[in-house]
Write a structure and sequence with these properties.
This protein is α/β, with parallel strands linked by helices. The chain is built from 17 helices and 22 strands. The relative contact order is 0.09. Bound molecules: nicotinamide-adenine-dinucleotide and (2R)-2-hydroxypentanedioic acid.
């Protein structure tokens, strides 16, 4: 009998381990107690691994895991997994997305209540110091307080429901959902982040993405109410830890409840020195019920994958380079960039994607659509969106994906086009490949251009009057923003679209100043 090896790299509930032990066709190795450098010496034996957040699936791990075919992340967040690295090596990555939802929701409520009543401090005062001083421990009630929820997915929406049961006034910010998901629950929906910053208590439940890292920093804390309470049971770094520390230290933030840290284990984190914070060592998923569910589901997914039966909750599709004609690959890559660019330039709940392949690329419009969807949803879903689940997730979100192909492409050999429609606006971007692999955006919203889709880009639509380019240059120079490239598209009606590639980060201040120019119609900033 052919035996498959499943290695468990982190501690999971014993129910999952028992499922693996009892299989005649499975070699089961429990490596959860091995130091991580020792793990690298044995992981080469594994066909499938089960991990949690404490194992970094990075280049070193993947180089050592020479036989690996599939990886099961026993939990939701995959920010510790190099999914592209796995895809390139043909390793299928799966997660177990909803088994710990309730555990994380309830820990969030525990932190919220703990913060409002200084629960651990009152507890320690009595238990450790044997002091009975009731007048020291006046807390606050949740009732009638305004709760701001950033991210209204599986966890955020359930926190909202529970907060309503506590008679709180609840508002959510999640530009990627249909507002009725909140309003149907009697929860206010906003697209103005400042409405969240005005709340009494703020909690975050987004994935860790380029957009959400540091979504709460010093500037946001400055705008908050005196005595605000902040909760983070999602991912370390969504609240900038230095700004959080400062805010807690100077009392602007009355209390914080924190389960997750930028660097874990977080035993040296300065936040632990403060006495207006409740902290837990990443326990969001740690209930018996959830760990039982996660371990058994992860074990079943690992068994199915090892036997090649199925890959439930797969997040990627290994890119089998040899099955894709060479000329198609740069178009797929370009289409993903166009999707990412379009979603950043036109933020909001995506209603539809129209993907067009013209010329010889036309017959690959199905693949183009998958890559466009991945790019467009990467903005809201981070690393959890990939080639396997893109079509499914788009359907689940009610996004209408339309594919059109045509054998001719005008002046080009092939051209690809994306029209992305959100609840707010429509953006259309076209691109092509020159000389086999040179990617170019050739049109944005009807403006003909020639732009390399790369790095930091400012899109500046303006009335085409003398002096605009000079004004833009002056503002960027004032803020030491170096221009790497400046492309201008003009139309017959007297409008122009400038695409400015810049070498360094552009602050909101710069964007506001550009937008304040008389000629400005809009300013958008995207990073590819
Ligand atoms: N502490 C723990 O042990 C623990 C346990 C489970 C999950 N988590 C973490 O909790 C978070 C939420 O998990 P989930 O299962 O609810 O995920 P989910 O995918 O169901 O929901 C995430 C929501 O965030 C929204 N979002 C994305 N970018 C946003 C942005 N910039 N602004 C506002 N909203 C945005 C998405 O549209 C989505 O609705 C993840 O980071 C996950 O890793 C932590
Ligand atoms: O227990 C873990 O591995 C982390 C759980 C949680 O953060 C998740 O993302 O599922």
């Amino acid at each position: 009998m052919q035996k498959h090896t499943i290695m468990v790299c982190d501690h999971i509930h014993e129910s999952g381990l028992k499922m693996l032990e009892s299989q005649p066709d499975i070699n089961y190795i429990n490596a959860a107690d091995l130091p991580k450098d020792e793990l690298l010496k044995v992981v080469g034996q594994a066909d499938v691994v089960i991990t949690r957040s404490s194992t970094e699936i990075n280049e070193a791990f993947l180089n050592a895991a020479t036989n690996l075919k599939a990886l099961v992340r026993a939990g939701v967040g995959v920010d510790n997994v190099d999914i592209d690295g796995c895809s390139k090596r043909g390793i299928i990555v799966m997660n177990v997305p909803t088994a710990n939802t309730i555990a994380a929701v309830e820990l969030t409520m525990a932190h919220m209540l703990g913060c409002m009543r200084s629960f651990p401090y009152a507890h320690n005062h009595l238990k450790l110091e044997r002091v009975w001083k009731r007048e020291k421990w006046y807390g606050y009630e949740l009732k009638d307080k305004k709760l701001g929820i950033i991210g209204f997915g599986n966890i955020g929406s359930r926190v909202g429901k529970r907060a309503k049961a506590f008679e709180m006034d609840v508002i959510t910010y999640d530009p990627y959902i249909n507002p009725s998901k909140a309003t149907d629950l009697g929860i206010e929906y906003t697209t103005n982040f400042d409405d969240i910053l005005a709340c009494d208590i703020i909690t975050i439940h987004t994935p860790k993405t380029q957009e959400t890292i540091g979504i709460i920093g010093k500037k946001e804390i400055d705008k908050m109410k005196e005595g605000v309470v902040l909760i983070n049971c999602a991912r370390g770094g969504l609240y900038d830890e230095e700004a959080l520390y400062e805010g807690l230290k100077n009392g602007k933030i009355r209390f914080a409840g924190i389960d997750v840290f930028v660097k874990e284990p977080a035993t040296d984190n300065p936040l632990l020195d403060l006495d207006n914070i409740t902290v837990t060592p990443h326990l969001g998923a740690n209930t018996h019920e959830s760990q039982y569910k996660i371990a058994t589901q992860a074990a079943q997914q690992a068994l199915d994958a090892a036997r090649g039966i199925s890959y439930p909750n797969a997040l990627n599709l290994p890119i089998r380079e040899n099955e894709i004609p060479d000329f198609v690959k740069p178009y797929l890559d370009l289409m993903q960039k166009i999707g990412f660019l379009a979603a950043q330039a036109n933020r909001g709940a995506i209603k539809s994607l129209k993907i067009v392949g013209e010329g010889e690329i036309g017959e690959f419009v199905e693949s183009l659509a998958t890559f466009a969807t991945v790019g467009a949803l990467k903005e809201s879903l981070g690393e959890t969106i990939n080639y396997v689940n893109a079509d499914f997730v788009a359907k689940e979100r009610g996004i209408d994906v339309v594919k059109v192909s045509s054998p001719t492409a005008g002046a080009y050999k092939s051209i690809i086009r994306l029209r992305l429609t959100t609840d707010k606006e429509v953006i259309e971007i076209s691109g092509t490949i020159f000389n086999d692999d040179v990617q170019r955006i050739v049109e944005i919203n009807g403006f003909t251009l020639d732009v390399e889709p790369k790095g930091r880009m400012i899109l500046f639509k303006n009335t085409d009057v003398p002096g605009v380019i000079g004004d833009v240059g002056q503002i960027l120079a004032k803020y030491n923003v170096n221009i790497a490239d400046f492309r201008l598209g003009r139309d017959k009606s007297g409008l122009a679209l400038a695409v400015i590639l810049v070498d360094n980060d552009v602050s909101e201040e710069v964007l506001k100043e550009l937008d304040a120019l008389k000629a400005s119609i809009y300013v958008k900033y995207v990073i590819l």
